[in-house]
# Entry
Amino acid sequence: MRKRVPLNAIRAFEAVARHASVAKAAEELCVTPTAVSHQIKLLEDFLQTELFLRRNSRIYLTSESSATLSKISQALDLIDDSVRTLGGTQENLHARLTVGASTSFASFWLMPRLRKFIESVPEIDLCLHTFISRKEAETQDSDLRICNWQSHLDWKIEPLMEEENLPVCTPELARRHGNDPAKLLANAPLIHVDRSHLGYEGNYPDWSRYLEEYGIQRPDVMNGPRFNQAGTAIEAARAGVGLLLGRSLLVEQFIDNGELVMAAECYPERSPYYLLSSWKTTQNDAMRQFRDWIVEAVSSSRMVHAL
# Structure
């Protein structure tokens, strides 16, 4: 006889663990954060173990709960798929494809193009899981992952594209410095992005490396506002705060619509992206269709380079 487990509490745990946020889990489950917290407490009492570590208003998985997250996610997916078959034949059901991508990549590059994929293959239900850090990405359960590093896990790695790193600012800021790249690089306020905490291996230069490459010396090179995510740094650049050493993949749409302009030359080295999938995952039609689509999307993107 099966032990009666609190299924709603398990769903709440899986959602909180996947999002690393009670609020986001509550939004997904269409309940209040208080209700989610109650379900987590119920499950911890049921298991007589702590599932999350709570530090400085943030939550982290314990090592034990992290080790079981993938299996629980797969089990919930299997339950959902099985229940859906009760309403019709398997042939009438949509395929489900889970894709993992960084929050900045998903927001600034993938999202503006995603409608074309959804419209071209309406029989596929796409689940997009975003992450901020490498550690978070490698604990998620996804069919495909778009990453700027090569994982040491047992994943198939396919080169996808390269992006450039280029100084960008608003047209107004460029005009204030006479639209002169040398004056902009020497005098405009600098916007910084701190990436060390993310655990990425991408070859992203900072302002010190960039200015040294082009022989420009600034005693205040470390001054200026700093952001821990590319997205907020881009918003600062769009607001005219300063000059951003931006990633072409993320700023392309803002250059195209005139909100930002390329203020000087690109950094000479490019940063690679890869399409990752587990060797243990069945390579199904949905995965192949998404792979074909994103390769085509890369080839038509003006400011990235296909591999």
Notes: The first helix runs from residue 7 to 19.
